Amino acid sequence: QVQVEQSGGGLVQAGGSLRLSCVASGIILSTTVTSWYRQGPGRQRWLVAVINGDGRTNYADSVKGRFTISRDNTQNTVYLQMNSLKPEDTAVYYCNVLDQSSYWGQGTQVTVSS
Q1: Are 5 and 106 contacting, i.e. CB atoms less than 8 angstroms apart?
Q2: b/e for 82-98, b at 16 or more Cβ within 10 A?
Q3: Secondary structure class of 15 (helix, strand, coil)
Q4: DSSP state string for 21-70
Q5: What is the SS3 assignment for 87?
Q6: For residues 6-15, average pLDDT
């Protein structure tokens, strides 16, 4: 059984940093496409960053240069390092693991105050 568990997030002032973690069990993240999505209040969930099995990454334009997605294969964990945070980054962030099926983490709130 695949489980995806998130940690990190919280409240930070604008310009600050946070790191989110996505730990998976029952699946090897280096064989998947793992992504971070976010969903603001009253908005649709959209893709923030993705890392492929071979380590290639891609980012939404709004977070390029500020966010970094990475993977630690020894810990079977994917991270999202978020720097220079802005109030508009406030959202619930979700980890998604995709292979033959799609698995979601429970979501974690990130709030950036101005």
Answers
A1: yes
A2: beebeeebbbbbbbbbe
A3: coil
A4: EEEEESS-GGGSEEEEEEE-TTS--EEEEEE-TTS-EEE-GGGTTTEEEE
A5: helix
A6: 97
Structure token digits, residue 38: 């976010």
What 3-state class would DSSP assign to 3? strand
CA–CA distance, 18 with 111 (Å, rounded to integer):
10
Tell me how far CA of residue 96 lies from CA of 14, 16, 91, in angstroms.
26, 25, 16
Map residue 6 onto helix, strand or coil.
strand
93-114 pLDDT, tens digit per residue, is: 999 999 999 999 999 999 999 9
What's the pLDDT tens digit per position in 34-84? 999 999 988 999 999 999 999 999 999 999 999 999 999 999 999 999 999
Burial of 47-76, coded b for 16+ CB within 10 Å and e otherwise, reads ebbbbeeeeeeebeeebeeebbbebeeeeb
